[in-house]
Amino acid sequence: MPQLRIAAAQVNSRVGDLAGNADLIVAWTRKAAEQGAHLVVFPEMCLTGYPVEDLALRESFAAASKRALEDLAVRLADAGCGSVAAYVGYLDADSVGPRNAAAVLYEGAVVATQFKHHLPNYGVFDERRYYKPGTELDIVQLHGLEVGMVICEDIWQDGGPVAALGQAGVDLVVSPNASPYERNKDDQRLPLVARRAAEAGAPLVYVNLIGGQDELVFDGDSMVVSVDGTLLTRAPQFVEHLTVLDMDLPGTAPRTEGQFGEFLVRRISLSSAPVPSYQPLPPPPVAEPLPEEAEVWFALVTGLRDYVHKNGFRSVTFGMSGGIDSAVVAALAADALGGSAIYGVSMPSTYSSSHSKDDAADLARRIGAHYSVQPIADMVDVFVRQLGLTGLAEENVQARCRGVTLMGLSNQHGHLVLATGNKTELAVGYSTIYGDAVGGFAPIKDVPKTLVWQLARWRNAEAEKRGEIPPIPENSITKPPSAELRPGQLDTDSLPDYELLDDILDDYVEGDRGYSDLLAQGFSAEVIDKVLRMVDLAEYKRRQYPPGTKITLKAFGRDRRLPITSAWREG
Amino acid sequence: MPQLRIAAAQVNSRVGDLAGNADLIVAWTRKAAEQGAHLVVFPEMCLTGYPVEDLALRESFAAASKRALEDLAVRLADAGCGSVAAYVGYLDADSVGPRNAAAVLYEGAVVATQFKHHLPNYGVFDERRYYKPGTELDIVQLHGLEVGMVICEDIWQDGGPVAALGQAGVDLVVSPNASPYERNKDDQRLPLVARRAAEAGAPLVYVNLIGGQDELVFDGDSMVVSVDGTLLTRAPQFVEHLTVLDMDLPGTAPRTEGQFGEFLVRRISLSSAPVPSYQPLPPPPVAEPLPEEAEVWFALVTGLRDYVHKNGFRSVTFGMSGGIDSAVVAALAADALGGSAIYGVSMPSTYSSSHSKDDAADLARRIGAHYSVQPIADMVDVFVRQLGLTGLAEENVQARCRGVTLMGLSNQHGHLVLATGNKTELAVGYSTIYGDAVGGFAPIKDVPKTLVWQLARWRNAEAEKRGEIPPIPENSITKPPSAELRPGQLDTDSLPDYELLDDILDDYVEGDRGYSDLLAQGFSAEVIDKVLRMVDLAEYKRRQYPPGTKITLKAFGRDRRLPITSAWREG
């Protein structure tokens, strides 16, 4: 059977950086060429980064993307990689409108282009705002083999372009993707890719982006699946990776052209002679998907690292309170940026316990962070006395003096401020706007409180396994959580127990269940009333919160779009 | 020719308030009935409010909307209005998905329902995320006349359901709308409605919502246009209004049913006998569209008033600096809420000029606002000394101490904080995050600086015409703008002249022009570079800004969706 050596380049591109992404594509195509690959597949819109949002509507950006693609074809040939067919996603635009496109670059030219057909417009996706769908499929003949292409969402839909490719006849299908990470999503991808391979009657090369972009993080999980659904190789998650795989392909696909359903199939021949028979490489490994906590941890580390670096920051600062949230943020930041990039600040008030200060200092020592203490008593005192603040107003002013302190240090020293709130807090509005909610990025914004504890235990256990110092002080994990804004305050004064709270939130927010469903699940009417009311009233606060890496289906900010002004109450 | 008395109920409904909106519909149907109307048309999704955003995806909300519609039909009959055919927009959901729907309520029952076909998914609209399109058209026979219905976007598209109604045969078309205000949009509506009336071969009753909902404000501008394009009546903008109009309709429409293009037309007969001939009412007036500044002013007043009241606040507070922005916000708030609902706070720093304090006090007197002075020197001093802040960090800490002061007073006294920044500032990032950007609502967020001055002059002139005290001190209008964060500081130290700046922003933001277009317009490369860089870098700040009434095509926050992390630079 004819042979083909294929390469899947799972890379981290950067939105808007046409020059940098072109360099990246040249570098990885060169690696593929060095390993003798005949084709290399890059992720969806690799040349522009993904998602470009309203940049898609800027004519000047689309024109620059098209120019960059043509220049790239020439550069690849100049770099001696012209004979490797490179599949590169980019932004196109024609008289119909902007297009989510991918092209084949070969021997210094753009030899084929194809536009995405299925445009997702749910959850994190708004592609129907931006792109017009394509209905033409360019099947490229390479070394006598017929190679079809489909972009991302086109493999998530039954029927559609994959079925048309199958009817027209292909020996191989390649698919550039930008599929954001979500907990347990990899469980869905493999069966999906296998189903499409069967539909196409050909193996499928699935290549996904890695890296963070604003609230999204891409996990890679690139793979090749045979026509019978066998997983031939899978790349490790959250790292750049080149997979090179030798395939024996039947090469018996018919070469029909013309209309297949709504799709017009065209054939483009690059080379009709099969490659001379050669000794195949040993098969590449099949990476195991990461275990649950590890996967979430690396998603958060990747999202944080790329947000900081891609926005040009080198260091971060945040309040180290001694509590679990700031401890987990610190451990994530240490893994993402290194301890020396962290400037932790303890900002005790008159209500702060001594164990808080001790735990914060202990944390900083464990991760090797810079650490300073800035008591807020003097600042708070001026506001409280001058404005006559009491009760909640007095509690909030403490959090806000901390916010002003961090922002002042950020302005003075150039650190990015991290907000340390978790998803549970955000859901119920248990945070102070312009106080603990200040910052440019919120690493655990989409992590429910119970998962924060779980991650802390997992990360410490990993350190112990490796004979390293566990980053998180045991006391931060075990002590009862408190905002310490008044004497003896505990979270449980205002909130239900976190296990119960997270269960209700999972049903109400992630599951979109109504009041009567929640009652039927056995929650008490009183606690449902209380929690739902808090969630509904906190919409404004959530909108003002910094972005943070999305790991659940319904991350606040990215997916959920609710009116602020709304009289709707469940029940 | 058969007669029909039609009523257009231009009302202000509230998102999520099914009970309150049902009361509103009963009250206005009763008014229509008292005036002898045979049918009354309410705006799009009047029963749920518009837009409901992700509430559309909650099964419990859709179920409650359907129940409320059925209850409403019964209540209307109980109130003695059963014989008035009421066209009521609501949220439906069936096995296909959620539907943007409108129903005809008659004699205690829901007698017809129709789903919107064209689902807008651009600008402020995300309807393809939420709704499935409908392709069935229910034409209702009322007093022997054939009445068709189309919902909002269905009249903005050539062809589509209006053409199908025209082919099938109708005597009248009614159209419930939720069409947000935008400067000069009324110039587009009349020709559009006229074109659709011609396409339908029947007069068209266009009914639009009024009122504010988060960042959107609806202006009404409801109208009736005859088949030959004559404007028969138009309601005044930004007020609730019932238009009652007697029409002589030919009643000669064929009664064909079945498939017309992609639409299935059905006929439902409520009453086949024409109404006995009666003496028509005198024709209602045709309201003139408001002049340019008045229209913007009322849009801003309406947006602010409804945001405050629909969120349950009674009073507002904000910094009165003596500058033009806070003066215009104060005048808007006085018109929206009354002077006694305003708690202005002067927060002088050591750099504040004496004219600033005088102008602020003068403003408060003119509009009858509460007024207090809270110097920030002591607060600023603690932060600056303890943290060692200099330069920009010191400037920002002043703005942030003002932010903490306003939020403290808000927490203590329950006022909503208004942010007083304008669109030009927001565009270039000339504001302090967590400082002057704090607040629940930003009334002039979408008003460019040059328009702020223009509105100030217009409002003062209006007051003079009416023999009232102009609300805005002349000195606030004429003095050169300054943030007063360091000695002798002027906005022009950091920014181009505002006339020039607004011109560039209009091209770059509203017009989406690229670098070379801007050069071709005659702007200098240096100023383009500077402005575009400021705009691109301020995306994060803009996202953290409070919501504010949208009056332009590309309001920040509502329409423009750009990545924060982006390396793209024009030029």
UniProtKB/TrEMBL annotation, chains A, B:
Q: Might you give the EC number(s) for this enzyme?
A: 6.3.5.1
| Name by which UniProt lists this protein | Glutamine-dependent NAD(+) synthetase
Chain coiled-coil ranges: none
Catalytic site: 44 (proton acceptor), 44 (proton acceptor), 116 (for glutaminase activity), 152 (nucleophile)
| Keyword set, alphabetical order | ATP-binding, Ligase, NAD, Nucleotide-binding
Q: Which SUPFAM superfamilies match?
A: Adenine nucleotide alpha hydrolases-like (SSF52402), Carbon-nitrogen hydrolase (SSF56317)
UniProt region (Disordered), positions on chain: 468-490
Give the organism the record lists: Kibdelosporangium banguiense
Pathway assigned in UniProt:
Cofactor biosynthesis; NAD(+) biosynthesis; NAD(+) from deamido-NAD(+) (L-Gln route): step 1/1
Kindly list the positions annotated as binding L-glutamine.
Answer: 122, 179, 185
Domain CN hydrolase: start-end pairs: 4-249
Similarity remark: Belongs to the NAD synthetase family.
Q: Which PROSITE patterns match?
A: CN_HYDROLASE (PS50263), NITRIL_CHT_1 (PS00920)
Instruction: Enumerate the residues binding ATP.
Output: 319-326, 420
Q: Please state what class of enzyme this protein is.
A: ligase
Residues annotated as binding deamido-NAD(+): 396, 425, 541
State the encoding gene: nadE
What is the annotated role of this protein in its UniProt record? Catalyzes the ATP-dependent amidation of deamido-NAD to form NAD. Uses L-glutamine as a nitrogen source.
